[in-house]
Amino acid sequence: MGRFLLVDDNRAFAENLAEILEDSGHVARVVGSGEEALLAVRAERYDVLITDMRMPGMSGAAVVQHLRRLDPGLAAIIVTAHPGEAELARARDAGVLAVLPKPVPMPALVELLARARRDGLVVLVEDDPHLLDNLTEVLRGRGFTSVSARSVPEVERLGAVSPFAALVDLRVPGGPDGEALRRVRERFPGLTPFVVTAHPDALPGDFDGRLIRKPFDTGALLAALEKLHGGLP
Fold first, then answer.
1. pTM for the full predicted model
2. Cβ–Cβ contacts within 10 Å for residue 22, how many?
């Protein structure tokens, strides 16, 4: 059974969605604004946030960012009939499991909710756009949320997130080999870094994470992440 928080100023839509989720045995609470969502998360713990993007007052992207400060482990899904690139980019920077269109494709939403993981955020540092997209999709397929950086400077611009793991290419633009890894370890000292690289000779001498050599077995990587996530307190 999951506990879901639905945020939408279209009350009828949200209550209809909540009824569908409750019929499947879940707990769903509906609120009509970002401000109400903040109060709800202060009072109770939820597994997944489902929020509209465009609402009076606080946008969906802002809701995700504010709630993550209260509950860093909260998974988030955005639904929207008005996708705007700037707002969607802001939401993805905060780490969302998915952005779905309205009307909501219920089979896709139910599948996402079944897989969504609390405390399941992974940082991806990779400059190959195809590999980055593939990793994002395979992680989503296992319920993990990701935020990404394509260069050393982008690591510094990652939002206020609390990842449990990072997949880091040693060689990305904006700095010498290993610099992105150094900054990830400095920024998120509690996480486990997985170095994904074709240049293992560039690993720092004090590296205490896990080495994944390119080309790599995606299934083995996912199994390692799932084992690590399953061992979280």
1. 0.90
2. 12
